[in-house]
Model the fold of this input.
Amino acid sequence: MESVLHEVNAVLGVVGSFVCLPDGRVAAQVMPEQYSSNDLNLAARVTSQTFHALDLSRQRVAEAVLLYDAGRLVLKNFHSGILVIVCARNINLPLLNLTANVAVKKLATATRVSKTAAAKPAAPPPITPPLPSPVATPALPESSVPVTPPLPVTPGEVELPNLVGELQKQAHQIVETAASAQIPLWLMDPVALWERCPGRRRLLTIPRQRHLELAGHAEHLSPIIQFFGRLGYRSNTRPNAPPTTHRLYFTGPETQDTLVIFLDTFEMYHRFDLKPFLKPNASMVPVTALALVRLQLVEMPDEALSDLAALLIEYDVSLTPKDDQIDAAQITALCVDDWGWYKTVSMNLEQLIYFAEDNLFLAERSLVVERARRLKSSLDATPKSLRWQARARLGESVRWYEIPVEASAPSRPDMAIG
Done:
């Protein structure tokens, strides 16, 4: 585990890091000498007790950030331990999270292995038993031997959760009503994802709030605003939002649900052109666009990794454009022209492989790992543009992604728990 902590400590601004187990013991540490073992043990006990108390109150916390005058503590809670990172107050958090999230996957595996080894009792010294009398032992019938069948590659559909079903009905009604008004709209998250992956719905993130994302054409900007105004939606677009932000925000008339419409372009941490994905005879964007929405995330949470795994299980990765497959050519074209896209997608594919190895059954894991590696091989094997090569020389010293623009800009508290 120390080697993983050294990787975390290599991030500019990190002072040191350690791992504590749920029982409060320090499992590994790479900290400066001024931090005594007593200090670390006390910090580990307080940290584990705090997260345990939150668990008991049904408030599962995956991450906590504590700000102090002289620095910052970043706490990453995983099932078998907690990663504690001591760092400078002004550290680049997105950059730290990229390394820390990968480290957490490795540490989760390492702590599980060490706990299993510790729980395994030592083998007793060999004893030479007396020779048994020659009594024939009847063989067990084959039917009595328990056999665990392999997981089927395509299990049956899982019933839609209530909220997803409501969002599905609402989204289709909006798209159909808009089409009758000559305004084409396409379904995106979360409805498109749930409809595209009926066989892997158990892996998909269940929405926590009424939120819909749609895609449309920028040439229909005014008709779209007027259309949703007639439906009773209130525009929630920031008045000072830059013109390059091709998004409209609305709030529902009664349920306070939120709606985002991407016009021709998806723009968050990275940008890609939506127009090739907006097919005239389709009601939702294809699976390649749904994959890109997740692959562009600079801070990839487990929920997004699970969604991406579901897509890779349901749909093969094609090196040539094919219907109902993830088009590696479109993803590769983005990544070989833009080093930032390449950097983020490559890191997310590596995280996806770690996630699959730790969380998926064998049949699912094999599909995800093989298809993720095939996509990564396409990125690496394709010649890069001069623009890509020039940007690659700067590397991570310059931020390679955009800061997402939200509908509103909430103030940041001194303590953020998520």
The chain has two domains: 2-114, 162-397. The CA atoms of residues 130 and 136 lie 17 Å apart. Confidence is low (pLDDT under 50) at residues 118-157, 407-418.
